[in-house]
Prior knowledge:
The protein is 51% helix and 10% strand. By secondary structure, it is an alpha/beta fold. It is globular.
Amino acid sequence: MKIGLINENSQADKNKMIYDCLVETAGSMGHEVLNFGMYTKEDENQLTYVQNGILAAVLLNAGVVDYVVTGCGTGEGAMLALNSFPGVLCGHVADPSDAYMFAQINDGNAVAMPFAKGFGWGAELNLKYTFEQLFKTEGGQGYPKERAVPEQRNKKILDGVKEVTYNKLTDILLKLDSELAAGALSTEGFDKYFWDNCKDDEIKTAVKNILGR
């Protein structure tokens, strides 16, 4: 599985620590981690948590990554932004139990984490244990186990509802404010990983139009 890491501007200085924790845990399980930045607070291209949502939606829907790890100060804004888009099911995850239950019950493809609130002594240990619970086993197996069948059924129902209630991603991208969308898709990491890994030609064309290429 390819896991994409995205940091917005307020927590960009924690990018390396989060990336290192992801590589140490998920990487040791055979997953590949792609770092889309922001890498530092001084990066030329500044991402807001709203732009995290745009970037995550493009990466997931185009098949560039299979999973997105992101966040903001509390994780709430990033979660709301990601869930604004089709093809994205993002949970708010603050600790290992959140991670395990979100993975096994909700079986989403993205998490938004609090990288400021409660992020103190031992934060890197909490990150490692949280990533272990997210990625050590296949998601959607149910918790508790006797609830697996109704939980899997509810996940399929939710997926079906989202297909009805969300517009097509390429239509959304072209209706967004052009500067907002272009800013989300102009990071060094996006340019590095998107073009060779994109599996959706329609999304690739929409991105080219947004970036004026």
